[in-house]
């Protein structure tokens, strides 16, 4: 239990590294030095020292949004294995994991709508619309993984050693990884779905919903976003090498290398292509869903 606690603690501390690694990869492709990898740590420390400003038209929902979303991600991290066994594991915890992510999005959207701003309402509408297309893909992929692993526990589903024992199912796992990678880009507001660095009102999705947050509230949102990215990248890392490893230095080292590879891949994708037009984003998410359904058909045979 102590080793599991240490594993979760290390993962929570390392989560802000991922956005910095993505930005460093994009800067390298652009021929620039770019911000330091630890930039998000500096930003979080600066925001935590400031005070929050609240509009008189907002209610308790606006203040609760960042806190509930961060708490949801923290609890969800207990179900994800980081280089070994997860901190909590029980049959059906995958449903709790998915709904915790949905709860975080729900309160983020409510906080945006609570401001009464049509600008943030536009972003909230886009966020909910695209999530309707992304969430079915996640559940379909979980069905396939449950079929392969024979378990409804997330820690067993993302490390299905049966795939390596049966080479004919390796192609099925590749379909799962591709669909989950697309969903990861969409859920974390990355290019080609969204650009976290944009300030154009016609293209903003997630960033527009948090414009009125400041100080510690904004720090909670930024850290929660990095933690959500870390959780989804961790799932991809385990699927790329589906072997259960003990909570050991070797397991954590391998896990860290795989997480770095997936994170750099996200940076490469963002460097190699531009953001899609808003009308084409649903097509991308529907294509990922169709691939997931194809994988489910193959897996259920």
Output the keywords:
301 residues, mainly alpha, 12 helices, globular
What is the gist of this entry?
The chain is built from twelve helices and no strands.
Q: Can you put this structure into words, describing what you see?
A:
With 301 residues, this protein is mostly helical. It has one domain (2-299). It has 12 helices and no strands. It has helices at residues 2-14, 17-30, 39-48, 60-76, 93-114, 118-149, 154-157, 162-165, 170-187, 215-240, 249-272, 281-299. It is globular. It starts with a helix and ends with a helix. The relative contact order is 0.17.
N-to-C SSE string, H for helix and E for strand:
HHHHHHHHHHHH
Round the mean pLDDT to the nearest integer and report it. 87
Number of strands: 0
Total individual domains: 1
Low-confidence stretches: none
Using the alpha-carbon principal axes, give the shape.
globular
Q: Helix segment count?
A: 12
- In terms of DSSP E residues, the strand content is under 5%
Radius of gyration: 19 Å
Major β-sheet annotation: none
State the distance separating the first and last CA atoms. Answer: 38 Å
Quickly give the structural class: mainly alpha
Helix content: 55-70%
